[in-house]
Specification:
Blueprint (H helix, E strand, L loop, with lengths): L1 H24 L7 E7 L18 E8 L1 H4 L8 E9 L9 E7 L5 E7 L7 E10 L6 E8 L10 E2 L1 E2 L11 E2 L2 E2 L3 E2 L1 E8 L4 H30 L1
Helix pairs in contact: 1-3
Length: 227
């Protein structure tokens, strides 16, 4: 009787341990946010970088937000974000901050900061604002990116593409001068993600049950070999 209690306790312990590991490994599925792109990043066409975003350097891009882009089915209480393709020079560990400002058609402006050290090379980084998506208006937007403390040799940069077509209403402006390219960026809305609790729990349970079945089969084989 005691041996059965011991075995049952062992099975419960293994089941709980495996379920815990499976739950932690599924953390990537339990993201709190979901993103909806309403201005997509343009394609890469002869893309190039404008140089490091060091202290004092500015990059500006104008683009047009069309009414139909705002008519997409976006969940309520979503917030406005800007996605930018960033280069860090082969995953170099950079310092300093990047400041992103957006000037809206109604005269208002938004601003947020990001840290170069947290950015990976050639990744699409999302910078979000505490500004509701439903308040956005159609019209021309000016996006300005700059760094106030970046130093040569330890700053990231942006990618530019020669795909100069709508919704980009102009070429990029680097340090006050127009260049032959547009910033690789896009507009997104960030909404709360609906966590698939049932699916995650089902996967965790199935994973744990399979491990327990394999453990029981192993114990049975060991017992048979011992006879």
């Amino acid at each position: 009787m005691n041996s059965w209690i011991l075995r049952a306790g062992l099975i419960v312990l293994v089941f709980a341990s495996v379920a815990g590991v499976a739950w932690m490994s599924s953390s990537g599925l339990r993201t709190p946010y979901q993103y909806y792109s309403f201005i997509k990043m343009p394609p890469l066409v002869e893309h190039f970088v404008p140089g490091e975003l060091v202290d004092g350097r500015t990059v500006e891009q104008r683009l047009i937000l069309a009414p139909e882009a705002l008519a997409l089915s976006i969940p309520p209480e979503s917030h406005f974000c800007v996605g930018v393709l960033v280069a860090t020079y082969h995953d170099r560990q950079n310092d300093g901050h990047i400041s992103l400002s957006v000037f809206l058609p109604d005269g208002h402006s938004l601003s947020a900061n990001a840290v170069f050290s947290e950015m990976k090379d050639n990744r699409y980084h999302k910078i979000c604002f505490d500004y509701p998506f439903e308040k956005l208006l159609p019209g021309e937007y000016l996006v300005r990116l700059e760094s106030w403390d970046g130093k040569p040799g330890s700053s990231g940069t942006l990618w530019l593409t020669k795909h100069n077509r709508p919704p980009f209403s102009s070429r990029a402006v680097v340090d006050g001068e127009e260049v032959d390219g547009a910033v690789l960026m896009g507009f997104l809305a960030r909404g709360k993600a609906t966590m698939p609790v049932f699916s995650i729990l089902a996967l965790v349970t199935l994973y744990a049950v399979l491990i327990v079945v394999l453990l029981l089969a192993l114990l049975t084989r060991i017992r048979q070999d011992a006879r």
